[in-house]
Amino acid sequence: MRQTGLGSWLACAAITVGVGGAALSACAGKTTSTPTDGADASTSPEAGPGANAPGCPATEPAQDSACTKDGLLCEYGADFDPLCNSVIVCSGTRWARPITYGGAQKCPSQLPTIPPNPADCPASRASVPPGACSSASTCQYDGATCTCGVHCSNYPIRQPDCAPDAGVKVGCCDTSKVEWACFEGPLYCATPRPRVGAPCTKEGEACAVSPPSECGQTTLACRGGVWSLPNATCAASSRGVKKEIAYVDDAQREALRAQLLAVRLASYRYKVGDDATHLGFIIEDMPEGSPAVLASRDRVDVYGYTSMVVAALQEQQKQLDALSLEVKRLAAENAALRKGAKAR
Questions:
Q1: In Å, what is the CA distance from 326 to each residue of 10, 314, 315?
Q2: Cα atoms in the Cβ-side hemisphere of radius 13 Å centred on 109
Q3: CA separation (Å) from 230 to 13, 100, 194, 309?
Q4: Where is pLDDT greater, at 297 or 220?
Q5: Across 165-177, average pLDDT
Q6: What is the largest CA-CA distance in the chain?
Q7: Pairwise CA distance, residues 261 & 27, whole Å
């Protein structure tokens, strides 16, 4: 997804789950049905996903159980959002769960719909004018969400307000500009949507499962002949989305530094996906409760791992500052001794 209008283009980590496949199916256009008020989209027969890829077991296989078609990707569950379902892949000769990343979503999900827009919204995305605006409305279209207002990047943290008099002119939010800003993505998937791993024919075709936003839209894309799940996710760092905030003290920072230095780095290649050699760590080598690993112990917490590096750098800088002061003290002491020796 992308943002247009005021503000910079936003980049989020993109990770694709999908492997080779062949022919069939397509996904485009708006949803063709809407659940009744209060209805759960996952229980609406027409709202869920379609058929699985040929060769997928009728029921979800157990993790590490035997399989025969390497790379076969299967999705189980009736939710319209695949992140609320279970995705499993035949890795070599064993079923495994591929690493996927997704923003916070509510499960079961609701079937995406386009609500009525306020009267002052332009009739379509194409008619949203670039530049200044005055409606102060949020307008939703199939494939875009546009808002009239002041827009500041919130990833990884909100930009500071510009203060030209103080020299803050770059990498900041100009709160004097009220403009249209649109987050854009593909059109919503038709229903029933394709399942992750089902075959497709039009390489690069994509459809959305959730509304476009600054970061976190769920989409499906035709990659290598199968429907894949290229997920975008950003770590939300604003105080407004967090609770029980407790800042790391000196002892905790030192403990994080020690844990980071103890990480065993390894080179490896993934069983599924690209065949390149990567550098990183193995989750099973990390201690329980490590900030670098999600509580489920099945995924890396990249944001937590990066924060550990920040803690280590802060602790090292504190030690360097102390050493620098000690060097200056010793230099001054030596200078005084030399001066005294000359006086004698």
A1: 44, 18, 17
A2: 21
A3: 10, 9, 14, 27
A4: 220
A5: 85
A6: 99
A7: 47
What are the boundaries of each domain within the chain?
250-343
> Within 13 A of 327's CA, how many CA atoms are on the CB side?
6
Other beta carbons less than 10 A from residue 118's beta carbon: 11
Q: How many residues does the chain have?
A: 344
Answer whether 280's CB lies under 8 Å from 266's CB: yes
Do residues 168 and 160 touch, judged by C-beta distance below 8 A? yes
Q: Answer yes or no: is pLDDT of 156 > 80.
A: no
Residue located via tokens 């995705």? 87
**Tokens linked to 7:** 């503000």
Task: For residue range 51-84, list pLDDT tens digits in order.
Answer: 999 999 999 999 889 999 998 999 999 999 898 8
Q: Please give the share of the chain, as a percent, with pLDDT higher than 70.
A: 78
Spell out a b/e string for 142-157, using b for 16 or more CB atoms within 10 Å of the CB, else e: bbbbbbbebbbbbbee
Distance of CA 256 to the CA centre of its chain: 24
Over residues 262-295, the pLDDT tens digits come to: 999 999 987 765 678 989 999 999 999 999 987 7
Specify the pTM: 0.59
Instruction: Decide: 9 and 182 in contact? Cβ < 8 Å.
Output: no
Are 5 and 180 within 8 A, CB to CB?
Answer: yes
Task: Kindly list the distances between the CA atom of residue 246 and the CA atoms of 114, 242, 243, 249, 252, in Å, as whole numbers in the listed order.
Answer: 39, 11, 9, 9, 11
